[in-house]
Amino acid sequence: MNEAFVRLFDQGLIYRANRLVNWCPKLQTALSDVECDTEEIEGPTKIPIPGHKYPAEFGCLWSFAYQIKGSDEKIIVATTRPETMLGDVAVAVHPDDPRYKHLHGKEIVHPFIPERKMKVIADAELVDMTFGTGAVKITPAHDHNDYKCGKKHNLEFVNIFTDEGKMNENAGPYAVALRFVSSLNL
Q: Taking the model in full, what pTM does it have?
């Protein structure tokens, strides 16, 4: 079996790379897109999650602030995925948004992991100036759009989850917490 993979690799027919997958902590395996059911949620909805004592609430827009390094100024982001903020490596703004032009390239401080290097980047493709605050948190290791943005802007990819769906050591003070439980305490 190994010989077949080596031959395919040597011929350039297959390759190995880090990619985002649909990981199931309960089954301990990756699932293809066809094996996953997606559901549109219209507003706050509580959904039971295997391994969690209480249902997690989805469909909410959460806001929090990142401090601009060396300043009293903050940049506020809005997200429907607060559980991934512990893997944030940047905040993106639209390059034409006058509210944030003075922040392009500035360093920001993560509120829970202050030693992590973060910055404000300008990205016209990812950011909609009229949605939320017009500032988007970037978590390349846990979101398909952020993955593309991370590649384009050469950002760090910080994985914050274990195979069991708990926070890992990269989640700072929230390490070992279940992913959706920790978002309740942010």
A: 0.84
pLDDT reported for residue 150: 95
pLDDT tops 50 at residue 184: no
Residue 52 lies inside a defined structural domain of this protein: yes
pLDDT, one tens digit per residue, over 32-72 is 999 998 889 999 999 998 888 888 889 988 899 999 999 99
Q: Is residue 121 a part of any domain in this protein? A: yes
Query: 92 and 7 in one domain?
Result: no
Are the C-beta atoms of residues 110 and 66 closer than 8 Å to each other? yes
Identify the H or E element spanning 145. helix 144-152
* CB-CB contact of 99 with 56 (8 Å): no
In whole angstroms, give the CA distance from residue 105 to residue 107: 7
Tell me: do 129 and 166 sit in the same domain: yes
| Residue 10 token pair | 């040597």
Give the sign of the dihedral formed by CA 25, CA 31, CA 36, CA 40.
positive
- Confidence at residue 181, expressed as pLDDT on a 0 to 100 scale: 66
Q: Is 67 helix (H, G, I), strand (E, B) or coil?
A: strand
77: left (phi over 0), alpha (psi -120 to 50) or beta: beta
As a whole number, the mean pLDDT across the chain is 91
Q: Look at residue 80 and give its three-state secondary structure.
A: coil
Q: How many residues does the chain have?
A: 186
